[in-house]
Amino acid sequence: MEIDDCNRGGSREMEQDMTAQYFLPLATYPDASSGLIISNAVTFAGYYSAHLHACALTVAIPHIPNAWSSLLLDTPKMIEHAETVSRDRAATLVSSATNLAASAEVELSSRTVKTTLPLLHDTAATEARFFDLAILECIADVPDTRIVSEAIIFGSGRPAIIFPNKALAGPIDHLVIAWDGSRAAARAVNDAKPFIRKAKRVSVLSLTGEKPLPEPSGAHLAEILVASGVNASATVARFTSSSIGQIIQQTALELSADMLVMGGFGHTRLRDFVLGGATDGVLHEPLLPVLMSH
């Protein structure tokens, strides 16, 4: 039986024609997402002609039975106030995203999802599974931003871009890939393909002195990227700091990177989630936009 395939090469064309769908979770309680992450998300989505989906997460706090609440302060009123604050913040954040997107001519959809406070982070991860990419912020003095980021990076199955607490400076022209030959790093490179494809330059960064790594590993990845039509080169830096996350980011900045691509490492131990050194360092204080994939 002969099949006339009229769609040869169609998968690549379809991939290029598909509109990317970016997810922006907006926290409302106990701390609200910043206006800066909304601005960065809109700007970033605009660079890549993506559709941005803002999702405001409002909280419902279980009411304490009267027998207990009578022993405490005016608990029902406190709960009502917290839920009202959450709803009001959601409306403000969604309105801000709507206005910024309209001004930037970026396609935006918005919705509000109600969840309980203990399930807030799991809800964010579940919502992120529907989209190509999550856009996140990590602010050192707002611990909940990191908890949400960890939940999405390790629980959604999707890549995420973590923005530092500063405005996005410009287009992502120079991409730096933190390469150690691991499965997570390979996954991150694959997830970063849309950005690698549009970057003017890609640097493959390997660290020496951090873990055993075949000498040509980073150079080999650069060769493969060049063969794919990417302007790529390999570079090596020495690991001399106690914080590998900081040295990777500092080296990327010294190379004038607009974005860092890296794998996210984490495992469970004694019911606690333990992050790899580089992952922990980046989530503690991102210095530039970082695409992280697990």
Automatic annotation (TrEMBL):
<dbReference type="Pfam" id="PF00582">
    <property type="entry name" value="Usp"/>
</dbReference>
<dbReference type="InterPro" id="IPR006016">
    <property type="entry name" value="UspA"/>
</dbReference>
<comment type="similarity">
    <text>Belongs to the universal stress protein A family.</text>
</comment>
<dbReference type="InterPro" id="IPR006015">
    <property type="entry name" value="Universal_stress_UspA"/>
</dbReference>
<feature type="domain" description="UspA">
    <location>
        <begin position="174"/>
        <end position="292"/>
    </location>
</feature>
<protein>
    <submittedName>
        <fullName>Universal stress protein</fullName>
    </submittedName>
</protein>
